[in-house]
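# nightly structure sweep
# worker-07 picked up a monomer target from the shared queue
# config: single-sequence mode, recycle default, output format = structure tokens
# input follows
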Amino acid sequence: MWIRLWLPLVIVCASSACFVYALRRRWFSRFKGGFLLTVLIAVMSSGLATAILLGAWGYETARGLLFESTVGDLKHTGDVVEAEIHENIRIAGTHLERLSRVLAQTLSRNDLRRAREEMRSIQSFDGWWLQMDLHDRHGRHLFSTGTAGASEPPNRIAVAFGLEGKPFISEAYMSPVFKTHVLHMSIPIRIPGSSPSGVLSARYALQEDLKSHVAGARFLETGYCVLADNEGSIMAHPDPGRIGENIVSYPAIQSGRQGKSGWILAKNRAGQERLFVYRPVRGPGTINPRDWILLTELEEREATLLIRALGRQSALALGVIMIISLIIGPQVAASVKRPVQDLLHLSARVRQGDFSAQTGVQGRDEMGQLADALNKMIHGLRERD
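# output follows
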């Protein structure tokens, strides 16, 4: 803000310095009516300088408040989206845990057919699970149930965590089998108080979840959300065709990767000026989790709509003050000009020998005191004559 205030401040200071220098050098004395011109310039320049400085300061202050308000709204949107993402992942983990308790009973009876039916039932009811795998207490893969013809190979790290009695969530990744972003989640299968009797792992359709919470988040006319992983690859976008596109070159993404939150005005891939509000989103991974980056993106034109309206109002107010100065300035000059002209006319009559002349200028100010002194001087001259 202070940088943008420099220009009007420099203009006002430079103009004031030039005017003071002109007064000291008596530049206006070379003009007929120079004194009145000096008064007129002084009154009008004072009004204009005050209007320019107050107008610029008020505009920049209001601009900052409006901009921060817009940024605050976008940050709030990001907070809501992040909370919804992690809540859904938590709920998914709760569903797996419930299923694992059921599978613990079937594995204790070695009833694999029943276990398969339970897993398929969950997948048919909840479309977020693309693939489920069951492993025995030794980590051997028993079978898979899935929504696609092919299936992903077991994740040995996830199985190892499960056999140790620990849940596991992978980093988000683009599945080559399901052609979408997924999370690999696993949970130990055990009866309370006993060691794990197996491991249940599943591929969670993260991208579908993100579509409902991120890609569907819209605000104002042009605002929307984008979620990218730590490498800058888009995981959620209102335009499905941009899924997987890498935007790591965006300044907002680079700052988000460093754990920073904030906003920036920059151009997007299409060369459009946008307001980006960015923040890191805590990644769900169990091992060395890496933050995702959530962007809320808004057209610069829409973000500054109120600011431009404020600028027009400030310009209008400045114009009104200029008009008022143009009206008041000549009136002030005229109030000085009339008594000065009267005194000049009086001195001309006295110079011609008319000692009966008197000025009608009255008052207790300097002009009135000068007029009274001239009247007394003329009276003295008349008595001596």
